[in-house]
Amino acid sequence: MARAPAKGRGLVQTLLVVAGAAPLLVLLSALGVRAGLLSLETGWSLLTLQVAWGLAWLGAAAALAAVVLALGDLRRLGVPALAAVLIAGPALAGFVWQKGRLATGAVEHVSTDLEEIPGFGDLRAQRGGPGPGPAVGPDVCPGAQPVMRQVAPQAAGWAL
Predict the structure, then answer these.
(1) Is a pLDDT exceeding 50 seen at residue 1?
(2) Cα–Cα distance, 67 to 129 (Å, whole number)
(3) Residue 95 burial (CB < 10 Å; 0-12/13-18/19+)?
């Protein structure tokens, strides 16, 4: 006797596709930038950090909906619902982690401008005692040189 198709199977599979949209878009935009089809601005800033970020939230909601639908027939709908959760959960977690890293900024920078020292120049007090001194000046980083402003563009390009 043939089994009747599980009620809601098509909807759960559609929700699985929605859950996988964000990681797929990130992969395609990375490949597009690598192949030269997309600019870095379009691939990273627009498609990854904005569109895929929204798709990651939509995918998490779709995975949750798939789990709720799968509770009615866990034997037949449980595997695609679990797959949706295993795709959407890490995708959203990765985006939250990356957005947090981007929000904090770089840990430490080097400045050659001794008149306007950045606020994070001396981290000894924050670290609870003696530690590295201020990250300011060419004596801290000998490779840091001031920007040449009064030179021809060809000379500046060669120097860089």
Answers:
(1) no
(2) 51
(3) buried
